[in-house]
Amino acid sequence: MLKLIISPPARRTIFWYAEMKLYEFEGREIVASYGIPVPRGNVASSPEEAERIARELGVPVVLKAQVLVGGRGLAGGVKFADTPEQAKAVAAELLSKSVRGEKVDKILVVEKVCISKELYISLTVDRAARKPVYIVSEMGGVEIEDLARKHPEKIHRIYVDPMVGYTDYMARETLKVLNLPWSLLPEVAKLMSAMHRIMIDYDAELVEFNPLALTCDGRLVALDVKIIIDDNALFRHPDLQKLYGRDMTEYERRAKELGFSYVELDGDIGVICNGAGLTMATMDSILYYGGRPANFLDLGGGASSERVKEAAKLMLTHPRVKVLLVNIFGGITRCDEVAKGVVEAIKEVGISKPIVVRMLGTNEEEGRRILAEHGISAYSEMDEAVRRAVEIAKQVSSAT
Question: What is the C-alpha to C-alpha distance for residues 255 and 241, in angstroms, rounded to an integer?
Fold first, then answer.
């Protein structure tokens, strides 16, 4: 699944990457197979299953909603139960609700662990440095984004040479940062080595334990597991391919079926362009002028009127889109084909939304003529078109 990262407004840069998130119970199975300790437990799909698991564990339990969004604890997705009967009631409650907009279908039921200290450790990829990096902190149980914003001094990074991989000095450094006793060095080394092997074996972009618990009896246990896979590498993992697309929105799924490179965002200006670079530059400009893109949609090269029509229909029917911005540089893609596609989409959907078009290049004059016949003006300069789209979006917002 394609994802976009938009930097702080001061930088205005946008880039995209591909990822596939695993549910916590799936990540647990992987890390446990590499010898990393996790709490005893199992996954349940019904209140009765949750009760049975709690009874088998024979201790107070934690019930965790299995969703692919973050912040579930604050959203009421993590609850406790002291008895099997209470676990059943809590499971019924969790299975009847949504957590941050995602319906709960499964619950992870695990033993409640006595915690002495909550720590944070992850292995991810630093794209700027072009190498893996361990991120460790004494402040576990906190979202890493919040931690980085509020307590950046509490985050320590240990870079991994891709040609060498994990080495034991990293465990010694981590032990010092986490302020753990030297008796735990073998456990820390085993854990970090396993994290690196998981990243390599599964083409993972993130292996995270938050929190990593130091238990009351002095053990290290991964209480919460998050693994994100690079979905460009799924051809190497047939067992994971069937899981792809679970976290897609309705429009991302429809766009995938149509063969578009598409990413859902939270703005209100629909974006259709040809070429990833032009699409990202357009979104950059929207942000610069104070607007918010609703999506990333790249038609690709040589798009036919039919392909343009389907893209325009997708965006015109999107409930959050207030204005559609079409930005085309006509090389292989012909401007007249784009214009025909836009007009056909308007006719088919029957939805009246403002449309701003910028086109330049092959058959530009014919494209402009087709659009003009249907009351749509085409701009030559991207800045003009973007400013107009942002202006319209703000007008529509203030009127509603």
Answer: 18
Dist. CA 231–CA 237, nearest whole Å: 10
Write down the H helix ranges in 168-259: 169-177, 185-202, 238-241, 250-258
Structure tokens belonging to residue 188: 């820390």
Q: How far apart are CA 306 and CA 295, in angstroms?
A: 20
Residue 10: pLDDT band by 50, 70, 90 thresholds?
A: very low
Q: Are 355 and 376 in contact (CB under 8 A)?
A: yes
> What is the second-level CATH architecture of the domain 250-399?
3-Layer(aba) Sandwich (3.40)
Active site residues: 120, 208
pLDDT band at 245 (very low <50, low <70, confident <90, very high): low
CB 199 within 8 A of CB 208: no
Q: Is 358 left (phi over 0), alpha (psi -120 to 50) or beta?
A: beta
The angle at the Cα of 157, spanning 154 to 163, to the nearest 5 degrees, equals 170
CATH 3.40.50.261 in the chain, residue ranges: 250-399
What is the CATH class of 115-229?
Answer: alpha beta
- In this prediction, residue 6 carries a pLDDT of 45
pTM across the whole model: 0.73
Residue ranges matching CATH 3.30.470.20 in the chain: 115-229
CA-to-CA separations, 19 to 2, 30, 294, in angstroms, rounded: 6, 17, 20
**Residue 121 near residue 58 (C-beta atoms within 8 A):** no
Provide the CATH number for the domain formed by 40-112 in this structure: 3.30.1490.20
In the chain, CATH 3.30.1490.20 sits at: 40-112
Nearest CA among 60, 28, 25 for reference residue 43:
25
Sign of the C-alpha dihedral, residues 19, 25, 28, 33? negative
